[in-house]
Structure formats: C-alpha cells, structure tokens
Write a structure and sequence with these properties.
heterodimer; A: mainly alpha; B: about 80% helix
Chain lengths: ~325, ~280
Amino acid sequence: MTAAILPALRKPRLGRFGDPAFRALTSAFALLVLVILGGIVAALARGALPALAKFGLPFLASAAWNPVKENFGAAAPIYGTLVTSAIAMLVAIPLAFGIALFITELCPAWLKRPLGTMIELLAAIPSIIYGIWGLFVFAPFLQAHLEPAIIASLGALPGIGALFAGPPLGIGLLTAGLILAIMVLPFITAVMRDVFATVPAILRESAYGIGATTFEVVWRVVLPYTRTGVLGGIMLGLGRALGETMAVTFVIGNAHRIQASLLQPGTTISAALANEFTEAVGDIYTSSLIALGLILFIITAIVLALAKLMLIRLEARAGA
Amino acid sequence: MSAALYVRRRRRNAFVIGLAVAATTLGILWLALILFALLRNGIAALGPDLFLRMTPPPGSKGGLLNAIAGSLVLTLVGTAAGAPAGILAGTFLAEYGRGSRLAAVLRFLNDILLSAPSIIIGLFIYAVMVLPMGHFSAWAGAAALAIITIPVVLRTTEDMLGLVPAALREAAAALGAPRWKVIVIVAYRAALQGMVTGVMLAVARIAGETAPLLFTVLNNQFWSTDMNAPMANLPVVIFQFALSPYADWQRLAWGGALLITATILLLNIAAHLIAARSSSSR
C-alpha cells in the first residue's frame, strides 16, 4: 500500500493545477445530466412544433388519427396510457403492500434476503421479455379462461357492464394493464419495504407491547409514519407504468380508438411511438408522434418529480 | 376487553396475514411462470445454429449470430461511453458537491433521467443524431444506451463514494495529497467493488433495452460491423420476429429472449454476490 501510494504523492507532476482541473472535469460531467434533460425537452419541443402549430390545443382532445388525411389527435393514446396505468396501479399497490408487509413483519430472517433478490430479479427482466410472455402465454390464457368469466359475470351487470363488453380477444387495455402491474410491482414493493424499515423499532415494539396485532401495527403505526414514502413509491411505479413501452406494445392491440370496454384493443403513447414512428410518412405525421412523446415526457417528469419530493421529505425526517 | 372484540381482531389479523402470504406467493409464482415459459420455449430454439448462423428470411434455417454480435457491440460501446461519464459525474456529487445546492438539484434531475421512459431517449437521439446524419446507425443506438447508462452509474458511484469513511480521506490528506489524488487513489480504491457492481447493473439494464433502439440503430438482416449503418441487435430482432406470423421466426425470438434473460439474470446475481462480499468483508 505505502509503496504504491507514497511515490505517487511525492511527485507534484500536475502541480497546483491538478485539483482545479479534476474538479472542472467532474463538474462538467455532472452538468451533462442537466444538458441531456434540457436537450430532450428542446429537441422534443422543436420536433412537435409543426403538429402543435397546425392542430393547436384541440390536439389534446381530438381522437382523430388519420395518416391519409393527415389529421391527428392525442386523445386516444392519452386515454389508453391513463387507463392501463390505472389498472396497473389498482392491482400492483395492494400486492406490493402485502409483499412488503410479509417481508418486514412476518418473514423469518433467513428468507428476507432471497425474497429481496427475487424482487430485484423481477425488476431486472427487460420489458421485451414481459412483452413476448404476455403475447404468447398470458394473453391466450386470459382469452381462454379469465375474460369469458369476466364477461359472463361482470359484463352482465348494469352500468359497469359496459367496461367488460365485447368478445374475449386476449389483447387489449386490460391485458396491458395487468402486464404493467407485474412490471411495476417490484419497484413499488422495494420502496415500501425500504420505507417500512425506516420506522423506529421503538414505535413498532411499543405497539406490539400493548397487545396490537400485526395488522394493527402496520395499519396504525407503520403506515401513518411512512405515508409520504409509500406515496412516493407508488408515484415511482406510476411513472414507470406511464412510460413503459415494449411490454404494452405487444399486447395492447394498437387501435386509435376510445372505447368503454377494457377488453377491447386500444393504444398508449409509447405503443403508438414504437409501432408507427419508423413508418410514419410525412412531416405532420412524424411531428404528431413527437408531440405525443413530449406529452408523455412532461407527464412522467411531473409524476417522478412528485415521487422524488415525497421520498426526500421522508428521508429528511428519518435523518433528523 | 370483551371476548368478541378480541376474536374479531384476531380474525382480521389472520385474514390480512393470509392476504400478505398470498401476495408474496403470487409474486414468486409470476417470476417462476415467466422463467418457465422462457425455458420451455427458448430451449427448443437453442442449438449450434443459434450462435453460428445469421437471421434468416422467413421459412429457411438460421440463427441469431449477427444479432448477438450487434448487441455485444452496442452494449460495449454504450457502456464504454456512459460508464466513465457517470463515474465522473457521481464523483462530483459525492466529493465536491456534498451539501451544496447545485448537487442537490443535479441529484434530483438525475433521478428523473433515471426513470424517464426509455423510448423518449430514443426519440431524443433520433432528433439530434439520426435526422442530422440522414440515416439510422449503430453510433446512434450506442449513444442512446450511453444516456441510459449515465444516471444508473452516477447514482451507484455517488452512493458508494458516500460510504467511504472520512478517516481514510483525512489520512491521505494529512500525508499531503491534493484532493484529486485523495479521490483517485484512496476513495476510488475503497469504493471499487461497489462501483463495479453499479456498472454491471447498468450493463444488465441496457442489454435488454429495446425501445431506444427502435428509431436509432433500427435492425439489419445481415452481418455488419459498420458503426455508421443500421446493425442487427437482439432486442429489436426479438420484437420483429415475435410479432411476425412465421413459426420459425417466433421460435428464434424465444431463443433470443432466453439468451438475453439468462445474461441479465447472471449479471444481476454476480453483481449481488460482489456487493454481498464487499459488505461482509468490512
């Protein structure tokens, strides 16, 4: 150690300029993050300009998508993005809460690490794998078993029956939402587990000490203490779900339509981009797709920023 | 305390615990189902042909050689460009920017970039590289992957440098080392294992990225080593072949999916083992 370090220290080759130079180098690369984000916004805004200039604000509300007449609107992809993400959240949040509760309160110590690793593996599987699995395994399963049952039971109800009307196709908004739920589950679970672990042991032990059940400890002590962190984790998952591309593209059906039924095909912003961008002909078509990208980036950036702010608030309290 | 209340609380508790166990089982089951489907469908495509032949036209025999090679090149170039940038940026946040406002803002922005939809990164590179150059290219694909690498490596580098004990830095500074030498010779060496883990996780992340490659490197049915031209790569080949109506192509897509997943899971497990070893040796 000393033999390696000392000669290096003795020679002031770079003299006094070494330190400012290294500092400038590292700060330049740190600022690169700012440049990239600024560049993304600028490039997308510039690309979206022709479409936004032509269609104006009604672009957001129009469900038209006609490449031949060059008439485009963002309503259908925005609707699909929001609906699939909502389904994903409805399914993933309770599951994530259950798994986090199991890991922090119930699971024996030897099982904690393997379970944590397994969650991280679920998060590491690339989205195209979820896509191919969804298309060839999950969608046929839904079509053959789950969807007929849903149509027969929920589809017959007045009111909400419209959500579950139509033939069982296997692909569509519901399938995409369920695949998204699997994909965001590990992210939400990991955050919940981590923030549950920040609860001071004394709070938890006091509650157990006065005879509270596991559920009461989690519901009345752990959850109120970690509320902002849990919300931050949910927003983080939502940010992922909104922007997820490949898995959705495989199973959504890619139809620019707004329909009440969740069993019918639709599209999302990212799926429309993945499917149509390289084949788009004409400046307005390309520009409309870039405008969709800009909308997606703005939505996800806001959601992620809120998530970050909530998690920072919890960190600040845990540190204090 | 009434007995009825006690029973009700116990019952509700048992119910919730049952749901938690069920949720955990479901999570594990999902992972197992996906891995099982990958193995069952992927193994059928495994064989020497997969590694020795090019992607075929529909209806004839072939493999994924050009796509495997292309993915290796893209991942390698993307990591080579993105990882050093991420390490240097992380160094600034951990060593020079600690507690400063600028660093807090950059850290915040980095987290947004880290979770930004990857298809947006592809769109960005399309606008700044593909359009001006006039054609799709492997350089553009590698650039998109590099941009995805930077925030991942930045984050782990900063975290790992933050774990280096201040006493080590102070000892080096007391010997008269300037700050940059303290960082390069002492802090980097102490945090090396964690930084390597971060780079491995970044490689695992970009190896399977598909969306940012769609509009940048596109795909190539043939062997190509020209970085200025479209290049075959596993994710986009899987995307095209899986959605095609041809059984041969779908089989190759499953083979490619198995290859990618196996690679990524091995990288992740290796990264975890390194991280576990470094935390137990301290």
